[in-house]
Design a protein that fits this description.
The protein is mainly alpha-helical. It has one domain (about 5-105): Arc Repressor Mutant, subunit A (Orthogonal Bundle), CATH 1.10.10. The chain is about 40% helix and about 5% strand. Helix 1 packs across helix 2 and helix 2 packs across helix 3. The longest helix has 11 residues, at about 5-15.
């Protein structure tokens, strides 16, 4: 499996209503230094309907400024539709919505 395929496998494992950080996805894909690679892989996501890239946020719970499939507002809309809660400053409430990857077997 190449690097992007490993990243996509991790992202497909994030359940509805949860988010993961770029760093979390990078570490689970095999290298904690791949955060930017995760961003690039998601930007060129070959299967937006099957690979839920909208579930990946920054370590602070911020949304992608350049979300590739409809912009930042679309990412928030998709997350809200899944029940993800946001703080008043617009960040995802990571205390409630951060994915515990240990509960999922990749």
């Amino acid at each position: 499996m190449n690097t992007f395929e490993r990243i996509y496998t991790v992202v497909k494992s994030i359940p509805k209503g949860k988010v993961a950080t770029y760093g979390q996805v990078a570490a689970l894909a095999g290298n904690p230094r791949w955060s930017r690679v995760v961003g690039y892989a998601l930007h060129v996501n070959p299967q937006p309907g099957a690979i839920p890239c909208h579930r990946v946020v920054t370590r602070n719970g911020e949304l992608a400024k350049a979300f590739a499939f409809g912009g930042e507002n679309m990412q928030r809309l998709l997350l809200e539709e899944e029940g993800v809660e946001f703080l008043t400053d617009g960040r995802v409430n990571l205390k409630l919505c951060l994915w515990n990857s240990e509960d999922t077997y990749i």
